[in-house]
Amino acid sequence: MEVMVPLGAYYQGHSSLSKAEIEIATNLTNGRWLAAYSNYEHEMIAEKDGGLPPEKVEALIAGLLPTLTTPGRQVVYEVTSALVAPRVYPWASIDVQ
């Protein structure tokens, strides 16, 4: 939270992303982290301030691909999905001496 809160505050005032794009990234991240309180807060923000339909916000939180209406929103979805995806490191199970 020490990093996320200032980062979120920065994006609210200094980003070229739209409110909907910010909320797409936020809801995808919250869903991946299973952040219940943040999900609750940002689900409402995405619908009210971001103008995203409730079914699209629910799909984002669930990690599903909603149909997004603009190329910018699609790019934000794809980049955020790549960043929050689980990583598998094959060398992690190798005993290196």
Short description:
This protein is mostly helical. The chain contains five helices and no strands.
Would you tell me the structural class of the helices and strands? mainly alpha
How many angstroms separate the termini? 36 Å
* Helical run tally: 5
Helix content: 55-70%
Indicate the low-confidence ranges by residue numbers. Answer: none
Percent in strands: under 5%
Order of helices and strands: HHHHH
What does this structure look like?
The protein is an all-alpha fold and 97 residues long. It is built from 5 helices and no strands. The protein has helices at residues 4-14, 19-33, 36-48, 54-62, 71-84. Helix 2 packs across helix 4 (54-62). The longest helix has 15 residues, at 19-33. It is globular and about 55 Å long.
SSE topology:
Layout: H1 4-14, H2 19-33, H3 36-48, H4 54-62, H5 71-84
Helix pairs in contact: 2-3, 2-4, 2-5, 3-4
Structural features:
single chain, about 100 residues, mainly alpha, 5 helices, globular
